[in-house]
Amino acid sequence: MSGQVIFDLQEVSFTYPGNPIPALKNINLKIYKGEWLALIGSNGSGKSTLAKLLNALLIPSQGACFICGLDSRETESLWPIRNQVAMVFQNPDNQIVGSVVEDDTAFGPENQGLPAPLIRERVTWALKVTGMDDLTRKATYALSGGQKQRLAISGALAMSPPTIVFDEPTAMLDPQARREIHEVLEKLHDQGMTIVYITHRLEEILHCDRAVVLDDGLIQWQGIPRDLFSPNLHIEKWGLEMPSIVRLWSILSNRKIIDEHVEPDQEGIFKALCQYP
Amino acid sequence: MSISVKNLTYVYHQGTPLETIALDDIELKIHTASWLSIVGHTGSGKSTFAQHLNALIFPQKGEVEVEGMKVGPESKDLRNIRQKVGLVFQYPEQQLFAETVYEEVAFAPRNWGVKDDEIGERVEEALGAVGLDPSYYARNPFHLSGGEKRRVAIASVLSARPLYLVLDEPTAGLDALGRKDLLGLLAELRETGMGIILITHDLELALSCSEQIMIIEKGKKLCCGTPDEILVRLLDDKVHGLVLPETAMLASKLVSEGWGVPLTSDEFILARSIIEKVKS
Q1: How many C-beta atoms surround the C-beta of residue A115 within 10 A?
Q2: Cα A167 to Cα A88: distance, rounded to the nearest angstrom
Q3: Which of A244, A251, A254, A256 to mutate to test the interface with B (most CBs of B within 10 A)?
Q4: Do B276 and B186 share a structural domain?
Q5: pLDDT tens digits for range A210-249
Q6: Is 60 exceeded by the pLDDT of residue B97?
Q7: How many Cβ contacts (< 8 angstroms) between chains A and B?
Q8: CB nearest A251 (choices: B176, B202, B271)
Q9: Do B92 and B144 belong to one domain?
């Protein structure tokens, strides 16, 4: 990895008030510009706490968190940090403030105090990226779950941050809506945005650049996502579960039916199997 | 012993511009000691269906009968029906309210007028069924983990001793272990003779644990059958919003290439068959 460091966590620990056990222990992590990082772990592993440290919603109890070079412990850094890092959360209903799609999207840039023509430009662009451009005048209550979550992403995008942290944005969505969100993410990644993507669904991380596994408040493993599926890693010990298609891939590649470089998804396996006469 | 649903139709905001048909002529029989999953896309009507089963809403057309008792505004058996059919809503932990786990679970039987000396027995039984030992009784439910909260919420339904348990997306928000635990718990309840009715949009989940699956689309019963039958049907006939498990899609592609493997979403069965074909 190289390039500009966007997030630099140095020996970060975090303890919630009233709880003796730290949620995060001694985390060292650098996240680079343009990187799509998957942060995975089971319930209670500390992943959402880490997400909140990334835009200074939480401040480390120990250690330091530098965001675009700004130290999150300093009060005067908070505003610039939050302009750099937008967040999208799990529940789309909790993130909508406007009653019409384009008004809701404009909320962020209006708060940033931008001139009206620029706000309009940003809103138009953001809704186009998320594929919501044909719904600009629609009432937000009438949107589907997937549309609401795409709207939440539009709102984040409209502030034009170089980085977005997604905290399980698909957890409450059905499979169709989950796909819609993934298409948007891939587009953002292609445009060079830095993405931190938190999830416990491993089938969602295959296209990320790097995966970091958290368990018990510690970084347990990091590497390229497909290495996580290696059978000798025993990811069950971190409360993670391999998707069914990946288990199939793993059986077939262990038995040398398919090459281990085959992509662990149905298209990859199908192509590999088609080479048999 | 069954719930029988005949020609059930339900329309929201009937006669207004917002009129939406939620259920359209549904016919179904549900038995105790079985596991039925009701699968559909968001807005397909599956939650409306679930609410009929314990008389939270009444049929506008057609009928629902629980153990021979009719669901409807004239029914004198509503209490009885609601006791027989336990309903676990989505994110049930959001409905916790008591200060201790014990009080939370004791609420339902107390409300049903169960005698004090029997309440303790029921609470113990219900918490035991979800795997929470007496060390939890005095704890504050709000301080438990997400998975534990959900167990408490389910126990608080079980303490009414229902014959049927209807669960609306019970695995939403749980991680892999929490999900496995919960499905194991439901399988145990099924073994004790309870009828499990699982409402979900996760076809893969339904295929892996049910005995019967009903697919519902735009309020209509599209098909009903065993997981294998449903899989074959859905491979032929794509349903909007339902995503087939990747393993099943691979199996289907291989079949159309003449591989002769079984159509299944079970990776072990498919792997074994692929290995056999390659070796021969």
Answers
A1: 9
A2: 6
A3: A244
A4: no
A5: 999 999 999 999 999 988 888 788 888 898 888 889 889 9
A6: yes
A7: 95
A8: B271
A9: yes
Q: A24 and A12 in contact (C-beta within 8 Å)? A: yes
For the entire predicted model, the pTM comes to: 0.77
Q: In this prediction, what percent of chain A has a pLDDT beyond 70?
A: 99
SS3 for B91?
coil
Give Cα A136 distance to the centre of its chain.
25
- Map residue B169 onto helix, strand or coil: coil
Same domain? For B142 and B255 the reply is no
Q: What is the DSSP string of A166-228?
A: EESTTTTS-HHHHHHHHHHHHHHHHTT-EEEEEES-GGG-TTSSEEEEEETTEEEEEE-GGGG
Number of structural domains found in chain B: 2
Encoded tokens for A251? 């059986």
Start-end of H helices in B54-115: 78-84, 101-111
Give yes or no: residues B165 and B51 share one domain: yes
B210: closest CA among B261, B167, B251? B167
Same domain, B206 and B278: no
Structure-block tokens of residue A26: 């001694």
Task: For strands A210-215 and B195-200, give the pairing.
Answer: unpaired
Q: Are the C-beta atoms of A222 and A211 separated by less than 8 Å?
A: yes
How close is the nearest chain A Cα to the Cα of B94, in Å? Answer: 14
Per-residue model confidence as pLDDT tens digits over A121-160: 999 999 998 889 999 999 998 888 788 888 999 999 999 8
Q: By residue range, what is the domain housing residue B110? A: 2-244
Residue B277 shares a structural domain with residue B225? no
Residues of A with CB below 8 A from B178's CB? 42-43
CB A156 within 8 A of CB A181: no
Question: Are A174 and B42 a contacting pair at CB < 8 A?
Answer: yes
pLDDT tens, position by position, A177-189 = 788 888 889 999 9
What is the b/e burial string over B149-185, where b = at least 16 CB atoms within 10 angstroms of the residue's CB?
bbbbbbbbbbbbbbbbbbbbbbbbbbbbbbbebbbeb
From the CA of B130, how many Å to the nearest CA of chain A?
A: 19
**How confident is the model at residue A123, as a pLDDT?**
95
DSSP letter, residue B143: G
CA pair distance B51, A203, nearest whole angstrom: 33
Cα gap A227→B157, rounded to integer Å: 43
ipTM: 0.71
Residues B100 and B180 in one domain: yes
Domains parsed from chain A with CATH numbers: 35-52+78-229 (3.40.50.300), 243-277 (no CATH)
Instruction: Examine the domain organization and report whether B152 and B256 are in the same domain.
Output: no
